[in-house]
Amino acid sequence: MVESTAHAPTITDSTHPPPRAVRQFATIDLGIVISALLFIFALIVSAYFEPRIRALHTLQALIYLFVIIFSLRHSKWGYGVGISIAAFWNYANLFVTTFIVGGVSKVFLFLSGGPAPNANALIAVFAALSHFGLIIFCMSGYLRLPNKKWHDTGILVISASLSIGYFATIVALTAQQYLFVFEKVFHL
Fold first, then answer.
1. What value does the mean pLDDT take over residues 107-113?
2. How crowded is residue 29: how many other Cβ atoms within 10 Å of its Cβ?
3. CA distances for 86 relative to 4, 23, 185, angstroms
4. Closest CA to 22 of 11, 12, 35, 8
5. Angle value at C-alpha 29, between 86 and 135, nearest 5 degrees
6. CA dihedral sign, ordered 120, 123, 128, 129
C-alpha cells in the first residue's frame, strides 16, 4: 500500500501558515485568556492583602475560568459572560465606588513625583485594564463568529443576568459589606 505524500494544508501543518481568520481567532483567544488570568491574578493579590475577601475572590475567579473555557470554545455564552461581568465590575468601580479613580489618581501622583501608591491602588488600575481588555477581546471574538443572529442579544441579556446574579449571590454570602454596590447600580 502506497501512502500519498500530497495533502491539503491544515491548521497544524507547519509548512503552510494558518488561514488569516484562524490566526485572528487565535489572537483573540489569547487576549481573552490573558485578560481573564490577569484579573484572576489581581483577585489573588488583593485577597493576599485583605484576608476578609478570600472566599469572595475564590468564588469570583470561577466566573473568569468559565469565560476562558467557553470563549475558547467560541461560545456566545462565554463571550456574553466576559463582556457583562467585566463591564459591570468596571462600571461599578468607576461610578459607584472610588476604587479605580482613586487608584489611577495615586498612580499619576506617583508618576509626577509623589509617594508610591499602595498595593490597592495598583490592583485597581491593573484590574480595570484587564477588564477593558476582556471586554474588547470578547466583543471581537463574538464579532468574528460566522453564526451571529439578531436573537443573540437574548444570550447577552441572560448571560449578564446570570453572571451578575452569581456575583451578587457570592457577595451576599461572603462579603455583605459590598452589597451597597449592587443597590446603587440597580437603584434598589
1. 82
2. 17
3. 50, 25, 14
4. 11
5. 20
6. positive
Give residue 115's pLDDT. Answer: 79
Q: Which residues contact 65 (CB under 8 A, 6 or more apart)?
A: 36, 40
Chain centroid to CA 30: how far? 12
pTM of the predicted structure, to 2 decimals: 0.84
The DSSP call for residue 98 is: S
CA–CA–CA angle 138, 66, 96 (5° rounding)? 65
CB 31 within 8 A of CB 45: no
Q: What is the pLDDT of residue 104?
A: 84
Measured distance CA(142)–CA(75) in Å, rounded:
8
> In sequence order, which residues have a C-beta less than 8 Å from that of residue 123 and are 6 or more positions away?
42, 45, 46, 49, 103
Instruction: Print burial letters for 131-165: b (CB count within 10 Å at least 16), e (below 16).
Output: bebbbbbbebbbeeeeeeeeeeeebbeebbebbbe
Around Cβ 178, how many Cβ atoms within 10 Å? 16
For residue 109, CA distances in Å to 125, 136, 164 come to 13, 28, 33
